[in-house]
Amino acid sequence: xxxxxxxxxxxxxxxxxxxxxxxxxxxxxxxxxxxxxxxxxxxxxxxxxxxxxxxxxxxxxxxxxxxxxxxxxxxxxxxxxxxxxxxxxxxxxxxxxxxxxxxxxxxxxxxxxxxxxxxxxxxxxxxxxxxxxxxxxxxxxxxxxxxxxxxxxxxxxxxxxxxxxxxxxxxxxxxxxxxxxxxxxxxxxxxxxxxxxxxxxxxxxxxxxxxxxxxxxxxxxxxxxxxxxxxxxxxxxxxxxxxxxxxxxxxxxxxxxxxxxxxxxxxxxxxxxxxxxxxxxxxxxxxxxxxxxxxxxxxxx
Length: 301
What we know:
Elements: H1 5-9, E1 17-26, H2 30-39, E2 47-50, H3 57-66, E3 73-77, H4 112-118, H5 121-137, E4 145-147, H6 155-167, H7 179-184, H8 189-204, E5 212-215, H9 224-233, E6 238-244, H10 251-256, H11 261-272, H12 274-283, E7 286-287, H13 290-300
Parallel strand pairs: 1-2, 1-6, 1-7, 2-3, 3-4, 5-6
Helix pairs in contact: 5-6, 9-12
């Protein structure tokens, strides 16, 4: 694949390694918002996205309004509610049982496959638009939209996702869809072919696309910094999206995810570390934010 045209647009070379460190799930719980607040006070640049249907959206919006120079916040389009039995949320838009957006209890489906199989595309379109609009109405200067659990990356949902972003002049998170990358994420055949063709068209129209996606999934209970720096040292030239889920260790976080809270607390500790910032500098890896990409997109479309 040709070098990503974003590199030169950002004033970089085709051989540069660029990372956007993204903090997902902001406002899902207070622990995630508290972590993001602390991260914005460091020297490293972070982008985040908020889960609009969740209870801590108002507090997230207030922080964004009160600290516009520190915040780069998007909307984490949320069509699922995965913490079954402990903590759930429903749609942001009005819904009926015919929409297929919710389960028998009135919450968003617990898994991506369920949402993709049952939700009507028109209902998904309304829900995506409602989530973005609620964030804007709350005062958030939305820099982008992305997807919780990858649910929008389904042919019937992708167009509403892209069109909602374009109508508001904000970039949607998309990846330059090579057959190899799609296959590594379980997409093959006509679905993969259609997605690849669509993103090629969108890139030609000036939308920013990423070359690769990585995440901080810890394989052990210690050496978290070493695991993250190993991921970063392996980056190829181009623009990489690094997905993280930082949260402060609180009783709330432990109650929501009793078997997973350690990973999110570790994410927070690693992202706050001076060693991570030094590593990026030593490696010559450039860190950018969604705001820069939004400004580029708006200059072209």
